[in-house]
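Ribose 5-phosphate isomerase A
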Amino acid sequence: MTNIKNDLYNTLNTLVSHHTVIGIGSGSTIEGYIPYLAKYISENELAVKLVPTSMKTERKLKEAGLKSTDEIDRIDVTIDGANQFTDDFIAIKGGGGSLLREKIVGYFSESIVIVASDNKHIEELHHITLPVEINAYMHRVITDMIEQTLGISTVLRKKEGEIFITDNGNYVLDCFLPDISDPSLFERKLMAIPGVLETGLFTKHINQIISFNDDEIKTLYKERL
Ligand SMILES: O=C[C@H](O)[C@H](O)[C@H](O)COP(=O)(O)O
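C-alpha cells:
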C-alpha cells in the first residue's frame, strides 16, 4: 500500500469495531475502499453487518468475501463517496444513480462519513448538477413541474443511448442549478412535487469528511451541538 492508502486504511480504526453496523456507499471511491475494509475486518476478526447502498456495491462486497444485509434495526455509520462536498458538510451525490438507497441508508445512520478526493471540494453550491430520482410513470409531467416550480433546466439521464434506470426501477433527472442559497428549502420544494422520489442533496447526518489527494489525507469533523 502507498502511504495515502495506508492512511485511508487507518481511518477504519476510528469507524469500525466489533458489532458495528456499517452502511457501504456506492461509486468508484468506495469500491476502491472495500478491499481495505475486507482486510481490516478479517485482520481484526470483527463481527460486523454491512448494508450496501446499491446492487453494484453488494456485488463488490461479495467479491471481497463480505456478506451484505438490509435486515438491521440500526446503522452506526455509513461510509460513502460524493460528487461534491462543502465545508458545511453538504454533499451532492447520485452521479452513479444510487441516490435513493444512499439517502435511505444514510438517513438511518447515526452518522455519515464521506470519503472523496479533494478535487470534489466546492466553496459554494453554485453551478452544480443535482441528480434527482423520479418515478418513470408520467416522468415528462413530473419533469415539467420541476422545471416550472424551481425555474431550472434538466436532462433525463441516459446510458448508452437508453434511459438510465436505477436499482429501484426509476429514472434520474440531472438538474442544473445556478445557485442554491438555502439548500434545505430547495430540497423541501423539490420533494413536495409528486413523483420526486429523492434528491442527491445531502444536508443532514454528514459529520465527517475524509478528503485526500496523492500526497495527503485530511479529516474534517462536524462539531456536535
Ligand atoms: O450514485 C452514486 C454515488 O452517489 C457516489 O457516491 C458518487 O457518485 C461518487 O462516486 P465516485 O466515487 O465514483 O466519484
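The pocket of ribose-5-phosphate is lined by residues 25-29, 80-83, 93-99, 102 (CB under 6 Å).
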